[in-house]
Amino acid sequence: TISVIQMSGKELKLFLRIAENGSRGFPPLSGVKLRVQGFWDDPFAAEVKSSDLDHNGKIDAWEADRIIELKLENGDKIQDSKMYKVATIDFLVRGGDDLGWFFSQIPQSRITLQADPRGTLLRDVVANSIRELGKSGTINSPDQPLVNTDEPRIKFEKVAQNTKKKSRHRRRKK
To answer: How far apart are CA 37 and CA 50, in angstroms?
Structure first.
């Protein structure tokens, strides 16, 4: 089922940090654009910022911060105190893919599980929405491409490693 969560901008940034850390892949998203450190980098490398979010005395892979830049799709910055509406699957809200700690921090009053009494599968909801969009001709048109290759939602980048500069001078052998 689909869940709708009211998140502050600060919470949204943390949600995206955890969801897009690469330890469970990079889930699809919309409405935001990210530049992230490529998944080929070790999550525990010095170049990957990490912190003990759940204060259990160790840093787990899900606590890696690969986000280099984060903004709304229109280019605006996410404002920490502003409230945003986020839709995702209940699997994540119930703690799947390392999001248990995060969602335990969100008051239940701001989480709505959109249970469908008919038991409709998420894939059917998505398929029906695509069919409806197709009727209006707005899906994957030149004006509204399904995937915009010129402006991808996630850009992976290699972060320069901290390496010592090599000396230009050679030592003379004695």
So the answer is: 12
Contact indicator for 86, 7 with CB cutoff of 8 Å: yes
> How far from 97 is each of 5, 123, 126, 173, CA to CA, in Å?
17, 19, 21, 57
Tokens linked to 83: 């409230």
Per-residue pLDDT of the chain (174 residues; tens, 9 = 90+): 778 899 999 999 999 999 888 777 777 788 898 888 766 555 555 566 788 899 999 888 888 888 888 999 899 999 999 999 998 888 888 888 889 999 999 999 999 887 666 666 666 777 887 788 777 766 667 776 766 777 766 666 666 655 444 444 455 555
What is the sign of the dihedral through the CA atoms of 139, 141, 147 and 153? negative
State the pTM of this model: 0.67
Taking phi over 0 as left and psi of -120 to 50 as alpha, with beta for the rest, 22 belongs to left
Determine the Cα–Cα distance for residues 93 and 106; give it in Å rounded to an integer. 10
Tokens read off for 85:
């509406």
H/E element, 123: helix 122-135
| Residue indicated by tokens 């943390």 | 14
Token digits for 146?
């399904």
**Strand-strand pairing, 32-37 and 154-157:** parallel
